[in-house]
Amino acid sequence: MPLCLLFFGFTFVGAHLVFCAQLGEDLVHPEKLLSLFEMERTGGEPDVVDYDKKTGEYIFFDCSSESPEGRRSLCYDRKALDSRKESKPKDNALDMAAAMGIEILTEDQYQELQKHGNFDTRTSSWLKTPSRIRDLGGAIFADRRYDNVFVYHNDASSYYAVRGFRGSLRV
Questions:
Q1: Whole-angstrom Cα distance, residue 122 to residue 157?
Q2: Which residues partner with 138 through β-bridges?
Q3: Are 40 and 114 contained in the same domain?
Q4: Cut 0.90: pTM above it
Q5: CB 3.0–4.6 Å: which of 19, 66, 106, 108 could bond 123 by disulfide?
């Protein structure tokens, strides 16, 4: 179990995640707990990467060494998925993230994550794509190779078995 979940007093009971500690004055909203559970269930290994002093929120990122296994082989968004005539992937990254209640990492967040370790050395992860790129049919993704972080572009409708997405959640 990830250290952050132990830190916050999470325990697994059967297939359910139970929260047993209080953060500040308020208990975490149940939908946030479900989002954390989904991040874990899909292989993201969520962990705390920062604390926002202004909002009092802990910021979780997917910290699995490779792009979460349960979130791979996805095109970027619904528009890209609908544009494919054949060989459609099972889903798209933006819709899956929204259903989980998380946000896809931005390029800046991905760079910050990489300061904490070597992530995506054999996989790659879709990143939140600026509208000026998406409007032209593209999307961006990143990985770490040769001890450097690279950000690339691809057609948003493309999908690969080794490309998924990483998420963030504020609790």
A1: 21
A2: 155
A3: no
A4: no
A5: 66
Instruction: Please report, rounded to a whole number, the percentage of residues in the chain having pLDDT higher than 70.
Output: 84
The two three-digit tokens of residue 3, written as one number? 């250290």
Q: How far is Cα 109 from Cα 98, in angstroms, rounded to an integer?
A: 18
Domain of residue 17 covers: 3-62
**What pLDDT digit, counting tens, does each position of 78-97 carry?**
999 999 999 999 999 999 99
Count how many domains the chain has.
2
- Please, what's the b/e burial string for 24-33 (b: 16 or more CB within 10 A of its CB; e: otherwise)? eeeebeeebb
Phi, psi of 70, rounded to the nearest 5 degrees: -80, 5
Residues 125, 143 share a domain: yes
Count the alpha carbons within 13 Å of 166 in the hemisphere toward its beta carbon: 31
- The Cα–Cα gap between 64 and 122 comes to 12
**Same domain, residue pair 57 and 76:** no
Task: Specify the residue for token string 């997405």.
Answer: 165
